[in-house]
Every structure is written in structure tokens, then in C-alpha cells.
Amino acid sequence: MSLNRLAPALVAALCLAPGVPATAGQRCQAQRLTPQEIAQAMDLGMRSAIALDASGAQVALIARAGQDLRAHGLHWSHLGFVYRDPVQRAWRILHKLNECGSDQGQLYRQGLADFFLERPWRHEAAIVVLDEALQQALLPVLRDNERSARLHHARYSMVAHPYATRYQQSNQWALETLAAAASPRIAHREAAQRWLREQGFRPTRLQVPAYRRLGARLATAHIAFDDHPSADRFAGRIDTVTVDAVFDFLRERGLGRAPHVVR
Does residue 73 come out as left (phi exceeding 0), alpha (psi in the -120 to 50 range) or beta? Predict the structure, then answer.
């Protein structure tokens, strides 16, 4: 678990087999960012910090638009928790990233500018301020390495099924951790997923034809479909956790405000 090390600043946007959306994570490819790209990331980080300061929040969710997902009806690709660090007096992000296209993921802490240093498709951020009680429950969890990793599962699939535990993608870790904070009796992933189902979380359903599933599975270690029910998989129905689905769930349950977009 590499909770205190920063993800490499020079990373590329995640590349996928055609037809499979980038719902979270990154692929490591050394690239030289231009001064303009670095300036854009720093500017978006600064503007996000200003928005967070103005919100009065201590904990929020923050999302980026790393990929063009309009074909799937999606706006945002990846989210993490953003919280105020009382020691450094700065905003920090805790999120899960895929390790260089492997079948593993780890948790990382980053600054706001680092979060956007990955050549996003749009230089935009979305901030969802969480319910006050949920913020207070999450804050000590996010500050603590052991507690924040309690529901983390290293084996990674970008399209992990929301109600299975064989894999865990980035948005799924955040949602399950949020569920455990909302219901303190939750002690494991199965309980978190049961609570989410009972609370009415609706995953995003992707239509992924067989030839695309096969191509993605053969070409990439970080995409797997074998945790999906056979009937759905053979019909090309792939349910997974997306940022848009998380935002809808929080708004419907009264657990978070509407997204505030920072450009």
C-alpha cells in the first residue's frame, strides 16, 4: 500500500481497447508535459481549492474528465475524496489508481494540481460537497492510512461489477468507503455492497459487444469481465460504478449537493 507516495506526475491518460470506457485509473507512460499543460493543471488545482474554500466543507468528492465518455452518456471518468489537511493547511486528495495497466491498484495521496496532471480530455473538475454528518464520519478515516484502506482490494478491473468482490475499481473503492462511513456497522465489502443495494444505488450499464470484450481482455490486464453474471455478460450488459452514477446516488439520497463544476 503506497498511501503516502505521490503518483508519478508524468502519466498519460488511460488507453483502452476500443469501446470500453475509462471509468477510473491510469496507464503509466513516460511523457513530457508542456509548460502550458502544467500551467493548466496548476490553474485548475488553484480554482478547485478556491471553490472548496468557499464551500465551507471539510470533505468532498472531486472528479476529473480524463476521457471522452460521451458515447456512453457519461461526463466524468474518475473520482477521489478531497479533504482539508489540518497540519499542512491544504487540500489533499485520496484516491485509488490502477498500476500501469496491471491487474493491481493502490491508494494514493496527492495535491490538487497533481490530480489534474494527466492530460485530461477537458480541463474541468466536479466537486460534490457531502452531507455534514457524512463529512464528520469520513474525515478521520481519510486521514488514517489503515482505516482508509480497510475496504481496499488490490486486484483491479476497470469494469468491476458493483456487487461482486473479485475485483475493485477506483470509483468502487470510494463508494464502498463512503458506505462504510455512512453505516458504521459495515466491516467488509460485502456489507458495503449490500447497504448500497438497499439504499438504491444504480450502477451504469454499458453495452460492450463480445468482440470488444474479448479484445479488451486479451490486450489489457486491468479489464476483466468474469465477475459479471453470465447472462448479462453474454448479452453484452456490463454494470459498473461510474462517477455519474455515484453523483446521482448521493443527490437522490440527500448525501451530497449537486456537482459544482470548476473550469
Answer: left
